Amino acid sequence: MAECLFCRIVERTIPAKILYEDEQCLCFADINPQARVHVLVIPKRHVTSIGSATEDDSALLGHLLGVCAKVARDQGVADSGYRVVTNVGQEAGQSVFHLHFHVLGGRSLSWPPG
Ligand code: 5GP
Ligand code: ZN
Description:
Helix content: 10-25%
CATH architecture: 2-Layer Sandwich
Number of helices: 2
Shape: globular
Strand order of the largest sheet: 1-2-3-5-4
Number of domains: 1
CATH superfamily: HIT-like
Distance between the termini: 31 Å
CATH topology: HIT family, subunit A
Structural class: alpha+beta
Order of helices and strands: HEEEHEE
Bound molecules: guanosine-5'-monophosphate, zinc ion
Largest sheet: 5 strands, antiparallel
Radius of gyration: 14 Å
Strand content: 15-25%
């Protein structure tokens, strides 16, 4: 989608600090990090959120979660602990409407989230 910010990062028309990629996904540093480690894990194919994912996306969603765990290991927070978050819709604070998992770690994270 030409007007989608994260599709443009996938196309490399907008720069990002890319940490990992494979055929299905791209991982890059959040531009406004909320923790020492704050990485976004996105599918290369445009999906708006998990709310619009279908049965056909099940393998992709599973793959993305596995990559979140890999990113946490690579960033050195697998043992200390980390959080994987995906915001869906307005009240959850979704601001970019291309599915992304936030991987947050490197500090103590409070619960419940705000
Ligand atoms: P959301 O609020 O939709 O759950 O998360 C969107 C995230 O994308 C935010 O954490 C925000 O800081 C990040 N973000 C927004 N624009 C850019 C950008 O141009 N580059 C990068 N790397 N991250 C961005
Ligand atoms: Zn997109």
